Amino acid sequence: MDADRKRWEDRYGGSAAAGSRATPSRRQPGPDDPPSGLVAAVADRIHGRVLDIAAGTGRNALFLARRGCRVEAIDFSHAGLRLALAAARRDGLSISAVQADLSSYPLPIARYDAAINIRYLLRSLFPTLRQALRPGGLVVVETFLIRQLALGHPSNPEFLLHPGELGEAFAGFDIDLYEEGLFPDGGRQAYLARLVARRPRD
Fold first, then answer.
1. Which residues in the chain show pLDDT less than 50?
2. What pLDDT is attached to residue 9?
3. Any idea what the Cα angle at residue 73 is, between residues 128 and 108, rounded to 5°?
4. Is the peptide bond between 154 and the residue preceding it cis, with omega within 30 degrees of 0?
5. What is the C-alpha to C-alpha distance for residues 114 and 131, in angstroms, rounded to an integer?
6. Where on the phi/psi map is residue 97: left (φ > 0), alpha (ψ -120 to 50), or beta?
7. Among the four residues 24, 47, 73, 108, which has the most C-beta atoms within 10 Å?
8. What string of DSSP letters covers 135-163?
9. Cα(83)–Cα(17) distance, rounded to whole angstroms?
10. Which helix (H) or strand (E) covers residue 59, if one does?
């Protein structure tokens, strides 16, 4: 197990995922936390088979499953997915889970009616994410901008978008929403890029 994988296993496997002792600034969202505000805002547009990229403990996957979606959750961390599946069993929900390194895991072609990618940036994933959607499929992306460096976390520019970069990654899609700026974020603020777009039907 490499250092990055171990870090996430430890983070989700400890009290932080459950929210029992961690401070709000460090706590990872747990399966019983509310979904992303962006996902909740566009939930009425999300239907059918849904891919949740970097699903963590499954807060978004579980929310969409409750709304009748068939959700496939992918994450690097076995511990995070284990928490998601336990919550699904408890609530009588069905989600599929795949533990995988998204830098090498091949997404299927034209499989999903929607895909969500919240607070995870892997630039090499964007082309395959585009292709994983069926024609007319919806993609929902939210992640941090480079200006987030001024607020301290994340602090690695590799995981921060430049202005306009997210829109360029989905050029040719039909854009329902694109915005960049400083947004409320769990009692704080964060510099974010947000995209909601559809793969063209032709």
1. 1, 3, 5-10, 14-26
2. 45
3. 30
4. yes
5. 11
6. beta
7. 73
8. EEEEEEEEEEBGGGGGG-SS--GGGSBPT
9. 8
10. helix 59-66
Tokens at 149, concatenated: 């460096």
Q: Provide the residue type at 104 as one letter.
A: S
Give the Cα separation of 165 and 196 in Å (integer): 14
User: Which pLDDT does position 19 carry in this prediction?
Assistant: 40
Amino acid at 64: L
pLDDT at position 27? 58
pLDDT tens per residue across span 9-43 = 445 554 344 443 333 344 578 888 999 999 999 99
Q: Name the residue with tokens 């009748």.
A: 68
Rg (C-alpha) for the chain, rounded Å, is 16
Instruction: Retrieve residue 37's tokens.
Output: 């505000």
Q: What totals of helices (H) and strands (E) does the chain contain, helices first?
A: 7, 7
- C-alpha distances (whole Å) from 34 to each of 22, 57, 102 are 17, 12, 24
